[in-house]
Amino acid sequence: MNISLGTPPFPIVAIADTGSDLIWTQCKPCTNCYKQNAAVFSPNSSSTYKTVPCQSSACDSLQSEYEASYGDQSHTKGDIAVETLTLGSTAGPRRHVAFPKMVIGCGHDNAGTFSPKGSGIVGLGGGSVSLVTQLGPHIGGKFSYCLVPSSAAAEATSTLSFGQSAVVSGNGVATTPLIPDPSQPTFYVVQLEAVSVGSKKIPFHGSTVGETSSGNIIVDSGTTLTLVPTDFFTQLSSAVESQVTGSNKTTDPQGYLSLCYVSGPKLKVPSITAHFKGADVALTVENVFIKVSDTVACLAFYGNDDVSIYGNVAQQNFRVGYDLQKHTLSFKPTDCTQKFF
């Protein structure tokens, strides 16, 4: 997502991640930074940048220096600071909204799987230092995004909305409860009851997340694949394989995904529906299969017994709306390449 930090505003492109909280960018001086295409943010060039002393309340969860790691073993280390953060506005291309004294991380040691296209991460989780929580009363606990499919033209951009413009409503909306977990406030947890492959309905018995009584899967914009328990994955993969027609099986060139086919117009995939509590979400082929090369498409699910995650491939071409006051998560099938406000 595009944000700006500092005064004067310095443009940043960062990963929008509902699975983490901290807003951070690579900062000068870089002791160990990954390569990024854009210029690196320099705190000395901003008149509003201030490091946070350790007795401040922002230190409660992070201390004045921070270290954060992610599920793929990427990490960032640096200083906690307060800074002005500026977002674009739907009021027009030249309209921007500035939010002063936002808690951010200024990363001097950052490594892992980060793309050179990005400069950091914008945490959209439910914790105290996330962008969503810090915007607080300005957005009424509402945000949504619409992720363009990986097959979209290069110029197509996903949209991220806050406040009243983020409300997902109208025909075709499926809404499921968000299940709060005080022990892990970062994560957006829901209950997945089953997945249907054609007429075969496979019950989902993922382990509960944190201290929730019924939540069993995390919805995460920052994870690509959908991670499910290995026994469920075996059943899902077998059901899909038994119903795919028109293409030959092949192997993942990277050797990571297990059910792959030669991609092309002849590949026919069964209808697949995710049955969340009170919400049936019908998935398209682009939600279920991911192209790993020009000629190979693989099932975008992965067996993992540590944690279950509903990843971003499954969320493409849906408006996904979070209402943290009503504790709901909504899905609406949408052509995300089209502007809708």
UniProtKB/TrEMBL annotation:
Pfam families: TAXi_C, TAXi_N. It is found in: Secreted. Residues 1-332 form the Peptidase A1 domain. One of its GO terms (biological process) is proteolysis. The keyword Hydrolase applies. PROSITE patterns: ASP_PROTEASE, PEPTIDASE_A1. The keyword Zinc does not apply. Keywords: Aspartyl protease, Glycoprotein, Hydrolase, Protease, Secreted. GO terms for cellular component: extracellular region. Its main location: secreted. InterPro entries: Aspartic_peptidase_AS (IPR001969), Pepsin-like_plant (IPR034161), PEPTIDASE_A1 (IPR033121), Peptidase_aspartic_dom_sf (IPR021109), Plant_Aspart_Prot_A1 (IPR051708), TAXi_C (IPR032799), TAXi_N (IPR032861). GO terms for molecular function: aspartic-type endopeptidase activity. Belongs to the peptidase A1 family. PANTHER family: ASPARTIC PROTEINASE CDR1-RELATED, OS07G0603500 PROTEIN-RELATED. This is Peptidase A1 domain-containing protein.
